[in-house]
Amino acid sequence: MLRLAWVGIIASAALAIEPLAKYFTSKEDRQKFPLVVYKKPLAENSGWQNTAATRVWVKRDTLGVMAMVATCTHLGCEVNYHSDKKQWICPCHASIYDEEGRIISGPASQALHRVSVERQPDGSLIINTSKQVGMDMRV
Ligand code: FES
Predict the structure, then answer these.
(1) pLDDT greater at residue 51 or residue 29
(2) Does residue 56 line the site of ligand 1, with CB under 6 A?
(3) Domain coordinates of the chain in residue numbers?
(4) Which of 24-28, 74-78, 110-114 has the lowest mean pLDDT?
(5) Confidence of residue 101 (pLDDT cuts 50, 70, 90)
(6) For residue 16, what pLDDT is reported?
(7) What are the C-alpha distances in Å from 127 to residues 13, 50, 131?
(8) Contact between 59 and 101 (Cβ < 8 Å)
(9) pLDDT at 20 over 50
(10) 69 CA to centre of ligand 1 in angstroms
């Protein structure tokens, strides 16, 4: 009986540690430099495109280009985009965001952060991850 209790305690501890392990081993978003350059052309209605090696995603719709950071607003895990469901889902505590980053279900209580984008003359984008903007902002 005591052995069974220990198995339960160890299993509970492992479940508690798992989200922290995911957080510390997921792709790093704490960038040394807040600026991200995206050079690929973005077609209208492109859907979300990942900017390699960062949590920054860009998208172009009929109104313009926008950028979003795929960091869960609960405790900072990287959220994964599921294009089939058109949702962002956090692997740590299962917060779900819609296609635009708005909360569907918690524990997160805020939308994913949109950040500033500037179009350069050569067509590339410079995304400033330190400058948060509103959900409606496009360039
Ligand atoms: S970090 Fe907790 S739900 Fe995303």
Answers:
(1) 51
(2) no
(3) 2-133
(4) 24-28
(5) very high
(6) 55
(7) 39, 12, 9
(8) no
(9) no
(10) 14
The pick from 55, 74, 103 for probing ligand 1's pocket by mutation, whose C-beta has the most ligand atoms within 8 angstroms, reads 74
Ligand 1 pocket check for 112: Cβ under 6 Å: no
Whether the model clears a pTM of 0.85, i.e. scores above it, the answer is no
Q: Is 114 within 8 Å of 66 (Cβ atoms)? A: yes
CATH of domain 2-133: 2.102.10.10
Provide the strand spans (E) within 39-90. 49-50, 56-61, 64-69, 80-82, 87-89
Q: Among all chains, which residue has been given the structure tokens 């939308």?
A: 111
Q: Which of 134, 118, 139 is nearest to 64 (CA)?
A: 139
Dump the DSSP string for 76-127: -PBPEEETTTTEEE-TTT--EEETTS-EEESS--SPPPEEEEEE-TTS-EEE
CA of 99 to the centre of ligand 1 (A): 17
Residue ID of nearest Cα to ligand 1 atom 1: 75
- Which of 58, 39, 24, 50 has the alpha carbon at shortest distance from 138? 58
